[in-house]
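Hi there. Long-time user, first ticket. I'm pasting a complex I've been working with (about 676 residues overall). I'd like to know whether the download I got is complete or cut off, because the file seemed smaller than I expected. Thanks.
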Amino acid sequence: MARVRLVEVARAAGVHPGTASRALNPEARDGVSKQTVRRVEQAAKELGYVPNSMARGLRTSRTMVVALVVPDITNPLFPPIVRGAEHVLNAAGYTLVLTDTNNEAETERDQVRALRGRGVDGFIVATARWEDETLQELAEAEVPTVLVNRRNGAGSFPFVGSDDRHGVRLCVEELADLGHRSILHLAGPPNTSTAASRAAAFTQVAAERGLADVYTASADSYSEEAGEEAAAHALHEHPSFTAIVAASDVLALGAQAALAARGLRCPQDVSVTGYNDVDYVRKLTPPLTTVRVPLRREGELAAETLLGLLDGGSSVPTQLLLPVELMRRGTTAPAPAR
Amino acid sequence: MARVRLVEVARAAGVHPGTASRALNPEARDGVSKQTVRRVEQAAKELGYVPNSMARGLRTSRTMVVALVVPDITNPLFPPIVRGAEHVLNAAGYTLVLTDTNNEAETERDQVRALRGRGVDGFIVATARWEDETLQELAEAEVPTVLVNRRNGAGSFPFVGSDDRHGVRLCVEELADLGHRSILHLAGPPNTSTAASRAAAFTQVAAERGLADVYTASADSYSEEAGEEAAAHALHEHPSFTAIVAASDVLALGAQAALAARGLRCPQDVSVTGYNDVDYVRKLTPPLTTVRVPLRREGELAAETLLGLLDGGSSVPTQLLLPVELMRRGTTAPAPAR
DNA sequence: TTGAAAGCGCTAACAC
DNA sequence: GTGTTAGCGCTTTCAA
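Hi, the file is complete. Here it is re-exported in full:
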């Protein structure tokens, strides 16, 4: 079953290849008689014609392929985003190429370059660092790109994320309402926008609520180990905390490990909040109190934004912040009496 | 920064495009003088030349793209497979297209067809059902394809999975050794190879160990709800079980929910084993006793097998079963006295 | 060892 | 409305 080319379809329908092409192409179909369109479509179906998208791409310089760049698909934060993006992209006739950079800037640069060589129409990037060379390259080359989840400092691209400031506010206020006065913020790695905005929000809200005994410790990465290490250190320096606001769920798990290592119980001795509401944290014992982020929706909106860029061409870089919600669960409790 | 073409590189190096092409292509490089190769490579680097893979693909009719078909990227079983596959594929210069079929046969068929139209060089399929039309299409068209995790009945493709029979044996023997005589097997949906082979192994090993009070209940899908429902039903019919061997971790969680609903504690009243050792199950309380499957390795080997198919051409369909390991954790305990 | 030239399958600008 | 023509950027015979 060799592949059928357009010429064969045209021959079968008794028309010129150019005409067949127009008949099959929705955009150009109006310039063709109903008759011809029918005959060509008929022939195409009978012969099982499948257009060669490389030839088409070479001619039109559009591939109908979009790449999604994630740091680690194994991190439960990303699958819902992937899913959302793929859903809308497919509906629009695009194919999604997934690339996992293994959290390495160099891998990321290489992958993105390779993908550009492949003629990918645009990128959705979920790996943005605050200073990000890959993004800079993309910006210079004016490659249609949308950032999701995190953004870079330059702000040159549309961004779809969620309302970090509000999410952190919800956590801090919840804890303050429970009587906590001494709270630790376990922040993400400094070169990410999520870490920065959540940390800023923490400081601000803590001040608003008149919380004086408040610190921020940064984890080196969004990993459990990094979270445990940073929390352990902070706990050692300032043993007075009765609550921890972590910048992510995984970080929160690390914090819990650090607590357990010091013989502190959660939530009886120290309350902990996470961030993202990743799939499994509600199954833990106790289930994690956290901020729900509409991840799938983020993926969908990022894809839609990119499609806008691809079609319309227009666009003031959008900054889209989706609403978040506090999930009160088992890791927050009233501040212990001291 | 418009895209640099080969002609420009050739011009800069003072050679003919044909020569530049040869100089840049590892396969044909020997027919070119060292001098020229150096000059061309130099020019390519300086100009930032990135080959246009559509043009190349059009000429060579190879896209260097491989598609990986998963039922639901949100299921923690698949990300490690994706990761493993991507890793070896990238190293070999291939790009991975991920497609999520949302567990729907129809979606799957459409996606695969679209991808074929794109000229994808081969498929890695993680969605195989026992009777699978999409796979049949692929087989008829002789598209290079490798199955991972599950296989189909026809057996027409190489398959990379793990040793289900042994895994289930480990579970049953562990439970028998702990004194359990009455065990329920919570099987997966009947149209999947994993469900079938695990169920068969269960029956066989139970017989070998002289376990008489033994039943199998099939869940409609590999979801927690389906697991809970099937387990609840079985528990109602035969309340004598002291242990459940589930065909997957998620199913095991469903079983635990069913147990809890009847006021039974795990593991004090009923022991439970899972399957796959998906990322988070060791963090649950109690941590799940389960069978570790080398998922990432499966992805890697599937990719390697596909590369073999793509390069070498032929190959007797391989059936590769990776070794598994029992992770003794908190959900198994000696059978309660009755 | 290198240059010349043809062409992969398709689309779009131009003629008729 | 439809046919004609000229490439998109690359690889690969075939000559030189």
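A couple of notes from our side: Residues 5-7, 17-18, 21-22, 25, 28, 51-60 of chain B lie near DNA strand D (CB under 10 Å from a C1'). Residues 295-312 of chain B form the longest helix (18 residues).
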